[in-house]
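Pinned message: reference record for Pyridoxamine 5'-phosphate oxidase-related FMN-binding protein
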Amino acid sequence: MVKLSEDMKEVYRKNMEKLFAVPMATTSADGVPNVAPMASVWLEDDETFWIGDNFMVKTLDNLKANPKVALYFWDPETKRCLQVKGDAEIKTKGPDYETARKRIKDAKPQMPAKSLIVIKITEVFECTPGKIAGQKLL
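Predicted structure (tokens):
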């Protein structure tokens, strides 16, 4: 798997500090795209994101049909942005799911915490405007 560098992790941290949400793109089995904001996003380790599912409908249907996802992180201070692609797995039981559910419930007890989306990073692309836009970094 692909591991994020320290500067990439900093883009993620700044995104979550300032913007509180990350756009996640999925596609249906028929190739229909969907983008939805994700607020419960954790960089679990250098190669794995966890996303808590509270209200996913189309996104969850898409993940069941096609586990490929893309996440977009933007640092509003430096204007640097990254596109992170990965393979998703849906978990509704087990220790990882219970850990994520507790995180969600501790922060906002009213949230349903229906499932955990585990994303293993496969590629990272630069999307900052300029000469490096679109460059594959990992």
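Pinned by admin. Summary line: The domain at 6-126 is CATH 2.30.110.10 (Pnp Oxidase; Chain A).
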